[in-house]
Amino acid sequence: MPQAQPELKKISADVVCFLQYMEKRVFCQLNGNRKVIGILRGYDVFMNIVLDEAFEEKEGGEKVPIGMSVIRGNSVVMLEALERITDK
Asked: Which of 16, 47, 53, 61 could bridge 73 with an S-S bond, Cβ 3.0-4.6 Å?
């Protein structure tokens, strides 16, 4: 008999863990050479991220405020911490 819900797989060790980046200012490079800087407030297993107090950095150095934003994981090329990360 088929199940109504598909079985969820357990999260493996190769899933990206951003816990040490939480509440830190990060630089996020996106597809299309877009650059966003903000405070990491959340993420999920698909690498979707939530940035707060975010702004987009344009080509000429212009900074456009965008506030809180959700960035889809498949558009993230690189994520870099702009604050010191310490092991706890």
From this structure: 47
**CATH assignment of 19-81, among 3.40.50.2300, 3.40.50.12780, 2.30.30.100, 3.30.565.10:** 2.30.30.100
Residue pointed to by tokens 């010191």: 84
Residue 2 pLDDT = 58
CA–centroid distance for 60 within its chain: 24
- Reading phi first (left if > 0) and then psi (alpha if -120 to 50, else beta), residue 53 is in left
- How far does Cα 71 stand from its chain's mean position? 6
| φ, ψ dihedrals at 72, nearest 5° | -70, 135
Query: For 29-79, how does the pLDDT look when each residue is reduced to its tens digit (9 = 90+)?
Result: 999 999 999 999 999 999 999 999 999 999 898 999 999 999 999 999 999
